[in-house]
Amino acid sequence: PLTQEEISQRRELARQRHAERQAANQSAESPGSADAGGTSTPAAPASGGVTDALCAQTEALSVRTTVEDENKEHFVAFARVYSGVVRKGQKVFVLGPKYDPSLALRAFPEGCSVADALPSIPHMACCSVDNLYLLMGRELEELDEVPSGNVLGIGGMEEFILKSATISTSPACPPFTPLNFEATPIVRVAVEPKHPSEMQKLVRGMRLLNQADPCAEVLIQETGEHVLVTAGEVHLQRCLDDLRE
């Protein structure tokens, strides 16, 4: 979604392009008065309505783009390459913290790879790496491959990772232990939507929050209440803001 500053910049660019186009058309129609009409055309009352209409179209386009992008969540997994080279489009195993490699060694034939048809193993999934990103503050630079020792972002893992996981090209890889945090979630609040008709949106939002925030927990009580467990008041406010937005 575009910010207000970006919308203003695009509006100014549209105005400048429209003013230049009007000046070029006027100079083409009356070559003798090109010098006099070059700078006064943008402020002429006749072109004001056209300029306002163009600005309105630009704003409408920006708002429509924002609305379309609101329903698309893009998760970027924050990762570090410990061994080998990870490449865009590479097929990998996604191993959960409770994955047991001995089960895979007994079930899989020797020398198998991700491309083979493999039986289902608990806490293990197969997928391909959609995108690799170099994390540059607010910006993301796409990469084709990343060698070991680097920190990167991986796209396309939202369906396979809950909080943390280990990515490997070998099913014999033991998974890393789950992340341990000093702060234990202790603040419990019951959350409900302002309008009962938006309950599905709340459930979907809490599912995404539980997937993305490693220090937040989501519970459903026997009474049907949706409980959010956070590490403190500041963390709770941050989670509620995420749910609203």
From TrEMBL:
It comes from the Eukaryota. Residues 1-49 are annotated as: Disordered. Residues 184-244 form the Elongation Factor G domain. SUPFAM superfamilies: EF-G C-terminal domain-like (SSF54980), Translation proteins (SSF50447). InterPro entries: EFG_II (IPR041095), EFG_III/V (IPR035647), Transl_B-barrel_sf (IPR009000). PANTHER family: ELONGATION FACTOR-LIKE GTPASE 1, TRANSLATION ELONGATION FACTOR-RELATED. This is Elongation Factor G domain-containing protein. The lineage of its organism: Eukaryota, Metazoa, Chordata, Craniata, Vertebrata.
